[in-house]
Design brief:
With 195 residues, the chain is an all-alpha fold. The chain has helices at residues 5-16, 20-32, 34-65, 67-89, 107-116, 118-135, 139-165, 171-194. The N and C termini lie far apart (34 Å). It has eight helices and no strands. One of its GO terms (biological process) is cysteine export across plasma membrane.
Length: 195
Amino acid sequence: MTALLPFLVFAFVASITPGPTNLLAMSSSARFGLRASLPIVLGGCAASAALVLAVGLGAGAALLTHPEMATVFGWAGALWLSWLGWKIATADVQLNTDSSTDKPLGAAAAALMQLINPKPWTVALAVVGVFMSTSGAPAWMLALLFLLIAIPCMLLWAWLGLKARHWLHSRVALRRFNQLMGVLLAGSGWLGLLG
């Protein structure tokens, strides 16, 4: 188990640090509540773990031998995150979400976001490149452990959004929060691409 400790620390840091899916879970929870945001949490975490598994089983080699694929994924991810950021920043602001026609993002869309987001691919490549050989653990075990660490980390971000909801008692405050989350979400995609 001590051989896995560096990986566990890495998985925690990679999961808890701000990223597009964390921001999306926070924004969704502030707007729609925690229960409605669970598909984002579960879809995003499952897709990240699936990427670790896929890269561990050989998909990472394709990205390393065809860097143009990584570039296409990066641009697609930045554009997708910009569109989501725009949707959040310009969303209809209603203090009572029961009457809103807006719906939170679903699990499939959150999973798709992970597939075109450079951060999860970078994390998966690091997991396989660094920790698979040093820990001696198979790809499926690292993917499962990553999932088990990522879910509580993402739930923390959703909980923070829920807590932020208590401060957002006016339409102006909620609109500013949505605008900030939208800009951060879109910016995270471009920073990941250009950084």
